[in-house]
Amino acid sequence: RYQRRVHGMLAIRKLGQRWNIPLACFAAKAPQTIPKDFLKRLPPLSAEDEQRKNELVKKIGNLVETKDVVLFMKGTAPVPECKYSQTIANIIGFYNLKKFYTVNVKPNQLLKRSLKEYSKWPTIPQLFVKGKLVGGHDTIRTMHSDGALEDLLRMHDLI
Questions:
Q1: How many angstroms separate the CA atoms of 35 and 37, rounded?
Q2: pLDDT digit string, tens, across residues 141-154
Q3: Is the dihedral of CA 73, 76, 81, 87 positive or negative?
């Protein structure tokens, strides 16, 4: 069921093994490079919003540290509101994790901004495993296609 929804990653993996092609060749594109000043490009906040943002950063840190797997995405896992979030939710679903948490950042712009400041990563979705940022869409897809994501989840005893 998930095999079809993960953009044919299993078929690609089998094809790569059959023809002895390195799986890295199938990656959609190389992992993105992050401009160092992306946080400075955001418009300034009011003093009240700045205080709320700081509180949200602390809450995000607490959530990420206490839960094993957290996916910050647009929408929810059953009803994603963005194709990138849908892809990552499907990849996580493919591994049948015991528990993973999703946080919908779409309705709250301040939450989205706080998340970007906390993780120092400019795009959504973002996957955290055991308190550490694994990456965004491109990174997770690449890790899934070459088996590194499965290794990471096994290493932390999550699957």
A1: 6
A2: 888 888 888 888 88
A3: positive
